[in-house]
Amino acid sequence: MPHVDTHASVDEWSFSQASRSLTFSLIFPFTSLLIMSFPYHFDRWLAVTMVLASGYAAFVTSDDLSPDDKLNEIYKRYVLIGGSYMLSMAYKLDGKNTEQALLEYKTAKSTWSPWYKGYKLMWNIRGVATPWENPYLWPDVKYTWNAPKSTADLDNTTSSRSRHSLMARGRGSGIAIRIVYVAINFFLLACLYEHNSERLLDTTLSDYDPEKESIIRRGVQTYFGRTVRTPVTSREILVRAASASEYVAGNFLLFSLYHDVCAIFFIAVGLDESWEWPPFFGQITKAYSMRRWYVNN
Fold it and tell me: Which parts of the chain span the membrane according to its record (predicted)?
C-alpha cells in the first residue's frame, strides 16, 4: 500500500490528550503485577475481570499514547498479546487452591519478595524458566533454566559460540553487546525506510489498485492466455514480492530492536539476568516443521 507518514499527527498530539492513555498504560501492568504477586488472594473471575477491565481501557486509549502511530501500534499489540497471556493465567487461579506449578519459577530464590516473583511471571509469555516454557528459546539449549549462566559453564557445554552466548554474559557485557545489536538494527531499519520499495520501484496508486488484491485466479487466467481485465504482470509480482519482503524485514528488525532495548533496561536496573532474555526470533533454519516454526519464531 502507499506509504503513510507515521508522524502525520505530531502537530495534533499533546500530553493532555495522552493523559488517559498514559494512565491506563500504568494501571494495566500494575493490575497484572498485583494479581501475579498475590495469586492466592484472587479467585478466577475476579482476576479475569480485573485484567479485562484494565486491558480494555488500555486498548481503547492506545491511539493517543504518543504522536508516533507505529509506536502506538506496537503498544496495542503488547496489550493484546500480554493481555491474552494474563487472561489465561488469571483463568487458572483458584484462590488458595491455585496449583503451585502454575506459579513456579525454576530459578526462584526463597529471599525473593512476592512482588519480584510476580514480576518474573507477569508478561512472561514465552514462559522463561517456567514449566510451560517454549523449548529452544536459546539455540541448542532446550530450556533456559539449564542454560549456562557463566562463560565457564559455556566452555563446558557443546553449545556453539554465537549470539546465544549472550546467555552466559554478565550484566556489563550483556548490555554492551545488545547495544551493538540495537545500533545495527536501527541502522538497517533506517536504510529500509529510506530505500523502501516505493522509492526503488517508483510505485504509483495504480500498483495498488483494488482490482489487484486477488492474484491467483488472475494469474491462472493470464497464464493460459484468457482475456483478463487486469492481467498479472511481472511488475505486479515484483511489487508484491518487494512489499512482502519489506514488511517481514521491517518487523524482524523493529521487534528485535525493541526487544533488545527492553533487555538492556531490565538487565541494567538489575531485575533480570542476560540468560532471561533469549532472542526475540529463533533461527529460521530450525523452522522446518509447523511446530518448530512456532517454537523458533
Answer: 20-38, 175-195, 252-271
